[in-house]
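Technical annex B. To support the medicinal chemistry partners, we prepared a structural model of the target in complex with uridine-5'-diphosphate, based solely on the information shown next.
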Amino acid sequence: MLEKLYIVIPCYNEEEMLPITAKALLEKMQTLVDEGKVHPDSKVMFVDDGSKDKTWEIITKLHSIPFFTGVKLSRNKGHQNALLAGMMTAIQYADLIISMDADLQDDIGAIDGFLEKRAEGCEIVYGVRSSREKDTKFKRGTAQGYYKMLSRMGVEITYNHADYRLMSKRAVEALAEFKEVNLFLRGLVPMVGFKTDIVTYVRNERQAGESKYPLKKMIGFAIEGITSMSIKPIRFITFIGFLIFFVSIVLLVKFLITWAIGNTVPGWSTIVISIWAIGGLQLLSIGVIGEYIGKIYLETKARPKYIIETDLEEKGD
Ligand code: UDP
Ligand code: MG
């Protein structure tokens, strides 16, 4: 039996991009249905992540075309939460979910590859970009360094994979079991397991509008990725603590010896430097630990990750 596919797309102030994206996806969906690759009731689900522009208006208009549906969040919750909200809503209706961005940076040609892997029995298929030529040098460099750092911290993550992926109903239901509030889907999805594979694609440039991920959000997302997936930084601090303690013991021995010999060392600079170095290090360490305590604080509150205001599918209009 053909599987019903829902393509979930988080949208934040995407009024410029949406008409272009919708047109491209409408064609794609039509072709997929005509070729008998997906169920005719398959849809594209736009998730309005509390946009301030005409995004939701456009989505409701698109809804008159059978291939389109939409969900509106009660406020802006960020890309990861919007994506999860869409996936959890779509899973009520769909057998397969593909998540992608609204800006067509993810090549929709890769969808055929996803479906082929699905036919081979994969529950999760990751879209991996073959090169980062189109990115700025800065973004490419920082992204690569970041992925390396994550894997060194023991976070299992697919290199060069953004949130463009196919997941079966089974995989999404398993993902729903992860109750954490601090969401880093790229790190979480691999923990679901099952048979997985990758499909490579060339990532395009954003075709209209601006990036909704300014540097500040990007840094926040990067820190989230580490602190929600790994406790290595805390261990690292403990290690540094030991190291500094050891060094201080060695220094103490040295000073005792010089004192015994009778050389009174002025030593003022040594003391001042150590005060600053240790003080700085302590503050940094407390900061990192605080970061984790903040996470625990948010997790214990167990606040909803998103609130859905309207689900066009449910309203059935
Ligand atoms: N996005 C969102 N909520 C936000 C920020 C972004 O839903 O608070 C969506 C955005 O509409 C887009 C996707 O997340 O579909 C990726 O954002 P963008 O393309 O701006 O990021 P970049 O590709 O520049 O990293
Ligand atoms: Mg983008």
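Notes passed to the chemistry partners:
The chain has eleven helices and eight strands.
The domain at 5-214+304-316 is CATH 3.90.550.10 (Spore Coat Polysaccharide Biosynthesis Protein SpsA; Chain A).
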